[in-house]
Structure to design on (806 residues):
C-alpha cells in the first residue's frame, strides 16, 4: 500500500513535470494558449505527486512498514515520534524526496505568484527550468535513489536499527535539514529566471528585480540552516566545536558564499546596469554548487574516489552538474553581445568599488573552500597518494579573507555611489573608527590577548560602528522605517555577521580543554571553575539507556551522558552550561571499566559561544527586514542623486 | 586615535607572553592529527577510543618535552602522510597552498585592469561609452519623470 502510493506519487510527479515542460514549450512555439494552459494545470500535479509520495514515506515510517527497504534500514519501533518523523530525511533516498518536495513547493508558489503572467516568455521559460529540475530529482527517485524499494522481511526479524543515533539525540536535527533545503533548493527560482532571461534575451534588469525577494528568502533560510547545523554539531558532538570544515559543511557553505556575493553585486547591476555576465555567472555557480554539494555529500566520493563507482547516484548527479555548467556557460556565451554593459565604475573608492572588492573576496573564499574540499580527491586520482586537508588549512587560509571582509564591512556602507573624496570618508568614518578603538581597548582591558583576535575585535567594532551609523541616520530620518528596506535590513544582517565574527574569534582563540578521570567524591579545578563528581545515574528510555555522570560545576549540576542504543551503538550526550560570556561543556567520554574505575570527562570552556546563535538570529531578522517593502521605490531610470518624491509633496 | 589603537594592539600582543602552555599545545596539536577511524575528523573532535588514546599519547609526549614537529613525525611514520590534516607545503601537495594565493592575485589584477581601462575610456571620451541613442534615452526618461512627478503634484 505505502509502496504503491509512494511509487505512484513519484511517477506522477516525474511524468507531470516532463509533460508540463513540453506542453509549455510547445504552447510557446506554436503560440497555442490552450496548450499553455494545459501545461500549467499539469504542473500542479508535480506538487500533488510530491505530497503523496512524502505522505506515503511518513506513513510507512509511522506504521513501521518494514517491507519498505527505507523503513527496514532506518526505522525502528523504539524511535520517539518526532525523530521517527524526521527519519524521512535522515538517509539518502528520503533526503532526495525532501528535495523533490521542496522544488515542487517552490514551483507551486511561482505558479501562483506569476499566474497572470504565464504568457510572458520570461516567466514561461523560468517555469520550464524549474520543471526540468523537478523532473531530474523525481527521475532520481525512479532510478538510483528509489525511496520505495521493497524488501522481504527475514524470518525472526523483530525491529529495525532506527536512524543514526546522532540524528535522534537533539531536536535541531529534525528542523535543520528542511530549513537548509528551503535555502538550497530556493536558489532554483532565481537560477531559473536567470536562464529564462538568457533564453529570451531579456538580459536587462527586469529579471533581477523579479527575483530579488526569492533570492533573499533562499539566502535567509540557507543562513539559518547552516547556523542550526553548527548549533547541532556543538550540542551533540561534544568536542566544543561547531564547525569542522567537513565536506558536508563545506557543501552548504559554498552556495552561501557565492549567493552572498550575488546579493551584493546585484546592486551594481540594478543601479548601474553593469556586471551582467558576472551576476548571471554567480547565480549559475550558486545553483550548480548546490548540485555539486549534493554530489559530494551523497555519492560517497569524499571517502575515496574508489567508493565513487559503488554508488549509483554519483555519476548521475555529476552529469547533471556538467549539464548545468555547459548550458549556463553556453547561454552566457551565446548572449555575450547583449550582455556587454555600457558605463564604467568611476573610482575604486565608491559603493560600486567596494561591492567589487566584496565579490573578489567572496569568490576567493569560495574557491579556497572548494579547492580544500576536493584537493584530496585530485591528489588521489592523479598521484594515487592519500592526503588530508583539514581544519588547520581552512582556518589559516580563510582567516585573512575574513579580516578583509570585516574591514570592508566597516568602510563600504559609508561610501557613496560613483566616487568618494578622502575628506568625505574621513568625516563619515570618524566615529565608526572610534567605536573600533573603544572595542579594542575594552577587549585588552578585560584581558583579551593575542594579535589575531584583537585585530578581529577592533575591525568588528569598526564595522559595527558603520552599520549602526547607517541605521541611526535612517531612523532619525524615517522613524521605524529606518529599520526596513534593503540597506537598513542589510546593516542589521551585518551586525549579525559581526556578532558571529566576534564569537568565532573569541571561541577559537580562547578555547580551553582538559580531560579528567574522576571517581565519586573527586573535585578538580579547571578554567576558574570547580568540578565535583557525585556519581552515576542510569535511566532507561524507549530507544536508549542513558548513563549520566552527575557533576556539580560551581553549584550547578550538569549531566553529561553516554547513551546506549538498542542497536548497540553508543554515543555521547554532552551537557552545556550556557552563559552570556562563556559556555562550559562537559562530555562523558568513558565509563568505568576493567582498566579504570573512574569516569573520563572532557571539559571545554569557550567564551561568547552564545553569540554565534544570537548573531544567526539577528541575520535572520535582518534578512526579513530587507525583504520588507520600503514605501518609495526609486525607479531605475532615476538619477542616483534624484530626491525621492515623498507622499507629502505628492499629496 | 591611531596611537591608542596601535598601543592597545601592541600591549595586547606583547603581554600575551608568546609561550604557550602545555594544554594549549595539546589542543593545537590534536586538531592537526586526523582520527584514523573517523570521516575527516581530527582527534580533537572525535571521542572514539583511538582518538582518545592519541590525545592521551600527545599529552604525554608534550609533557616529556617533545617538539610539535617531532610528535607529528611519530604519527606520520606510523600512519602515513594522510594522518596530518595540514597538507605539505612542498611538491604537488604544495599547490593547495599556492593556487588560492595565485587566484587571489589574479582576481585583484583583473579588477585593477578593469579600473584602468574604465579610467582610460572615461578620459578619452569624456563620458564613457555614451552614444546619441543613449542621450535620447536619458532625455526621454527624464522628461517622463518630470511629467509623472508634476502629475502627482497636481493631483
Amino acid at each position: 500500500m505505502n509502496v504503491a502510493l509512494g511509487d505512484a506519487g513519484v511517477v506522477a510527479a516525474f511524468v507531470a513535470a516532463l509533460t508540463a515542460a513540453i506542453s509549455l514549450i510547445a504552447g510557446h512555439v506554436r503560440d497555442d494558449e490552450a496548450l499553455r494552459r494545459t501545461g500549467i494545470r499539469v504542473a500542479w500535479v508535480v506538487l500533488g505527486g510530491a505530497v503523496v509520495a512524502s505522505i506515503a514515506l511518513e506513513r510507512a515510517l509511522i506504521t513501521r512498514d518494514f517491507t519498505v527497504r527505507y523503513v527496514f534500514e532506518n526505522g525502528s519501533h523504539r524511535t520517539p515520534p518526532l525523530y521517527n518523523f524526521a527519519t524521512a530525511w535522515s538517509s539518502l533516498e528520503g533526503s532526495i524526496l525532501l528535495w523533490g518536495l521542496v522544488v515542487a513547493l517552490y514551483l507551486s508558489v511561482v505558479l501562483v505568484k506569476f499566474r497572470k503572467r504565464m504568457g510572458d516568455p520570461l516567466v514561461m521559460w523560468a517555469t520550464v527550468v524549474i520543471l526540468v529540475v523537478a523532473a531530474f530529482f523525481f527521475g532520481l527517485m525512479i532510478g538510483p535513489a528509489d525511496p520505495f524499494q521493497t524488501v522481504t522481511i527475514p524470518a525472526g526479524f523483530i525491529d529495525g536499527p532506527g536512524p543514526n543515533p546522532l540524528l535522534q539525540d537533539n531536536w535541531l536535527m529534525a528542523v535543520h535539514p528542511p530549513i537548509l533545503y528551503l535555502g538550497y533548493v530556493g536558489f532554483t527560482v532565481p537560477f531559473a529566471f536567470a536562464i529564462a532571461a538568457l533564453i529570451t534575451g531579456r538580459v536587462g534588469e527586469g529579471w533581477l528585480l523579479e527575483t530579488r525577494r526569492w533570492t533573499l528568502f533562499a539566502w535567509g533560510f540557507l543562513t539559518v540552516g547552516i547556523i542550526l547545523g553548527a548549533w547541532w554539531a556543538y550540542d551533540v558532538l561534544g568536542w566544543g566545536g561547531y564547525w569542522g570544515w567537513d565536506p558536508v559543511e563545506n557543501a552548504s557553505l559554498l552556495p552561501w558564499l557565492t549567493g552572498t556575493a550575488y546579493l551584493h553585486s546585484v546592486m551594481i547591476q540594478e543601479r548601474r546596469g553593469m556586471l551582467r555576465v558576472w551576476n548571471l555567472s554567480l547565480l549559475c555557480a550558486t545553483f550548480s554548487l548546490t548540485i555539486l554539494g549534493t554530489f559530494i555529500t551523497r555519492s560517497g566520493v569524499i571517502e575515496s574516489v574508489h567508493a565513487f563507482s559503488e554508488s549509483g547516484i554519483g555519476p548521475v548527479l555529476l552529469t547533471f552538474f556538467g549539464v548545468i555548467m555547459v548550458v549556463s556557460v553556453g547561454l552566457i556565451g551565446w548572449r555575450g553581445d547583449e550582455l556587454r554593459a555600457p558605463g564604467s565604475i568611476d573610482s575604486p573608492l565608491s559603493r560600486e568599488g567596494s561591492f567589487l572588492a566584496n565579490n573578489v573576496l567572496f569568490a576567493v573564499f569560495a574557491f579556497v573552500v572548494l579547492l580544500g574540499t576536493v584537493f584530496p580527491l585530485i591528489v588521489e586520482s592523479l598521484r594515487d597518494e592519500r592526503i588530508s586537508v583539514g581544519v588547520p588549512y581552512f582556518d589559516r587560509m580563510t582567516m585573512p579573507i575574513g579580516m578583509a571582509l570585516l574591514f570592508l564591512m566597516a568602510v563600504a556602507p559609508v561610501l557613496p555611489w560613483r566616487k568618494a573624496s578622502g575628506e568625505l570618508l574621513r568625516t563619515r568614518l570618524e566615529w565608526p573608527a572610534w567605536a573600533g578603538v573603544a572595542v579594542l581597548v575594552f577587549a585588552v582591558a578585560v584581558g583579551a590577548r593575542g594579535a589575531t583576535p584583537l585585530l578581529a575585535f577592533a575591525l568588528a567594532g569598526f564595522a559595527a560602528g558603520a552599520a549602526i551609523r547607517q541605521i541611526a541616520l535612517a531612523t532619525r530620518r524615517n522613524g521605524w522605517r529606518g529599520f526596513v528596506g534593503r540597506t537598513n535590513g542589510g546593516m542589521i544582517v551585518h551586525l549579525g555577521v559581526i556578532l558571529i565574527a566576534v564569537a568565532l574569534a573569541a571561541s577559537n582563540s580562547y578555547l580551553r580543554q582538559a580531560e579528567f578521570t574522576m571517581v565519586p567524591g573527586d573535585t578538580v579545578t579547571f578554567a576558574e571553575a570547580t568540578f565535583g563528581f557525585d556519581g552515576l545515574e542510569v535511566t532507561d528510555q524507549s530507544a536508549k539507556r542513558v548513563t549520566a555522570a552527575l557533576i556539580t560545576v560551581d553549584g550547578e549540576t550538569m549531566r553529561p551522558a553516554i547513551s546506549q542504543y538498542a542497536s548497540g551503538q553508543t554515543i555521547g550526550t554532552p551537557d552545556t552550561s550556557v552563559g552570556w560570556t562563556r559556555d562550559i561543556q562537559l562530555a562523558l567520554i568513558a565509563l568505568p571499566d576493567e582498566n579504570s574505575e573512574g569516569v573520563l570527562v572532557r571539559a571545554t570552556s569557550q567564551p561568547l559561544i552564545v553569540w554565534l546563535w544570537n548573531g544567526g538570529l539577528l541575520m535572520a531578522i535582518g534578512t526579513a527586514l530587507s525583504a520588507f517593502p520600503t514605501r518609495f521605490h526609486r525607479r531605475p531610470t532615476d538619477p542616483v542623486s534624484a530626491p525621492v518624491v515623498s507622499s507629502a509633496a505628492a499629496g | 586615535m591611531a596611537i591608542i589603537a596601535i598601543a592597545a594592539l601592541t600591549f595586547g600582543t606583547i603581554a600575551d607572553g608568546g609561550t604557550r602552555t602545555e594544554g594549549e599545545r595539546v589542543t593545537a596539536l590534536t586538531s592537526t592529527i586526523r582520527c584514523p577511524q573517523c570521516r575527516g575528523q581530527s582527534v580533537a573532535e572525535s571521542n572514539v577510543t583511538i582518538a582518545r588514546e592519541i590525545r592521551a599519547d600527545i599529552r604525554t609526549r608534550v609533557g616529556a618535552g617533545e617538539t610539535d614537529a617531532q610528535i607529528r613525525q611519530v604519527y606520520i611514520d606510523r600512519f602515513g602522510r594522510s594522518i596530518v590534516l595540514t597538507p605539505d607545503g612542498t611538491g604537488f601537495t604544495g599547490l593547495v597552498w599556492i593556487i588560492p594565493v595565485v587566484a587571489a592575485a589574479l582576481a585583484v589584477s583583473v579588477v585593477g585592469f578593469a579600473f584602468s581601462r574604465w579610467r582610460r575610456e572615461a578620459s578619452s571620451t569624456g563620458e564613457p561609452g555614451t552614444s546619441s541613442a543613449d542621450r535620447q534615452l536619458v532625455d526621454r526618461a527624464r522628461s517622463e519623470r518630470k511629467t509623472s512627478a508634476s502629475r502627482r503634484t497636481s493631483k
User: Anything to note?
Assistant: The CA atoms of residues 25 and 62 of chain B lie 8 Å apart. Chain B has a mean pLDDT of 81.
